[in-house]
Input
Amino acid sequence: MLEQAQRVLKDIFGYDSFRGRQGAIIERVASGGDALVLMPTGGGKSLCFQVPALLRPGLAVVVSPLIALMDDQVATLEELGVAAASLNSTLSAEQQRDLAGRLRRGEVKMLYLAPERLVQPRMLDFLRTLDIALFAIDEAHCVSQWGHDFRPEYLQLGQLAEQFPHVPRIALTATADKRTREEIVNRLHLQDAERFLSSFDRPNIFYRIVPKENPRKQLMTFLAERRGNAGIVYCLSRKKVDETAAFLCEQGFPALSYHAGLPSDVRAANQKRFLNEEGLIMVATIAFGMGIDKPNVRYVAHMDLPKSLEAYYQETGRGGRDGLPADAWMAYGLQDVLMLKQMLQSSEGDERHKRIEQHKLDAMLALCEETRCRRQALLAYFDEDLPNPCGHCDNCIDGVQTWDATEPARQALSAIFRTGQRYGVGHLVDVLLGKDTEKVRNFGHEKLSVFGVGKARTEHEWRSLFRQLVARGLADIDLEGYGGLRLSDTCRPLLRGEVTLELRLEPKPAKGSTPRSSSGSPASQLVRGEEREQWEALRTLRRKLAEEHSVPPYVIFPDSTLLEMLRSQPGSMAEMARVSGVGARKLERYGEAFLAVLNGGAEEAPRAVADVRHELISLARAGMTPLQIAGQLQCSEKNVYSMLAEAIGQQQLSLEQALDLPEELMGEVQDAFLDGEGELPPVSEVAGQFAGRVPEGVLYCVRAALQSEFEM
Ligand code: ADP
Ligand code: ZN
Output
């Protein structure tokens, strides 16, 4: 059995060996047993049911909660030459009939469908007339009523056990906790399933958490080191998403936005672009998440604190699904804590629920202030023991210095107490530093014993100290007031001198315009120096093929496969076949083309131009001005205009996307071209009347737009 499975793995999927427990899982299911599979995101769950599906006779039925997920997998399978289909609400009645016919004739190997579809009596009746190889229940945690992805229809999937007693079932999830696991077993009637629990560690993700100072600048530094790579930037509110995306575009970063407040067609379009194009930044609320199977998300940045470690781990887990290096980066400050606590207070729900949420937030804060290995702390929270520090997080790499903060902490707490437990950090720091402000004078705080006792430290140090006091629960935020600080019960032993306090020593904030590198060398820069050119050539070819086949680029080949081509430099088809991810079908379809690129194919020059054009179009669509695009592509503005005009002429770009001209002026330019009879006049004829008002390039763009309209 395992041998056959190996052959399928190599011939169809192009991979040499199973990862982790894949082999054992596949053996179990292929031989007719049930399985419960817990594997982190990117662990390779799909193969666990796809390989047995190919080994067993009959149709494999895959339950998946989202159409986007299904489409992605179906496209991937089709590229591999496997007959797969999805049955969903987007199909017309005729398409559904057609699919039913193919199913009856045994022409489909894997059928993806939503749970509500599957459990319809008619559907079940229909399936009973077919030969079923297995049932796979993906995202099985959707049965959990406590989880955030609860889908009531999943509850009905339990009946498969009784209705198809001889068909093996495999349930898969990336959700770690025990309670969810037990719920899956009970509700899906998987008592006899063998359990396969993998480590939840994501060794390819580099974790870094930095104190928030100038968050936008910090973000830009982080992004600048990762140009050309795709990533997600999470923000807490819709407003902040919009503002951040607009800001990034202004600064020359190709950013899109995504949140529940956007019209659904805009959301769908942005999501699609993120999946299909490369190097885009998605600025989003957590509404953007499940169903994002893009394997080459190279970083996930958090501009705000998530409300639990579960959320943090899930969100950062969207990076690096392909197993290549990815960065998880977060900027965090006291303001975040205030905001989350406020949300918690005002949320619905009973006291018990709030207590649990509070506890989760505390665990999140503890990770931020962690002085040991972040990965060890994270995994420990999920009941997993990582024996040694990971060597792949900020704390491991930079080392964390701690200092004895007992005395200053007592001074800070005393400042809170003496000022009446109602002021925010700003004022408290002023008091400690002995600043002569209006507020200090108004309240007579210059007379307090704590006034000016903290002059030996900087404002930055005091702010960091207050933040850590709140994070550790030694001080509370007064939410009814204006976010003033109060003492909490737990600070008594410290005030009485019974315990000492060790805190993180933070590096000094960056000065002026040269912020420190956000992370040293980014984990996510996959290729360097001389490899770059060939890497880009490979990516360009992949993009071209993806467009021809209307699939996302990673469906042609994942980055990991391109990277292996680059590093191993296959010189023949036989060598190409050895590259991981190159199966028989893909070898036949694409092998030659990629070999040609690697061997310095003749097409290189025109391809490079196509590459620039492509990037130009996506930058323009992202809202960048021609000048900004010129900066980004490092070419002249004139050149940018002429490429824009060409793209407009070929209707790859609308005039509005390319230019940002006041409407009135735009009208005037158009009129100038349309004045005469018949043919459009050349640009040189109208240029005179706009000299000094409109760049000549604009005229070329407008003319191209009019021309293409006439041709239609
Ligand atoms: P999950 O569903 O667990 O998040 P996927 O099934 O999408 O993960 O797999 C993640 C990536 O790893 C995919 O690109 C997949 O092709 C690749 N992969 C899975 N198993 C293997 C393997 N045995 N060898 C090489 N690559 C693999
Ligand atoms: Zn570590």
Summary: The chain is about 50% helix and 10% strand. Residues 351-368 form the longest helix (18 residues). Residues 15, 18-19, 22, 39, 41-47, 295, 321-323, 558, 580 surround adenosine-5'-diphosphate (ligand 1) (CB under 6 Å). The first strand starts at residue 35 and ends at 38.
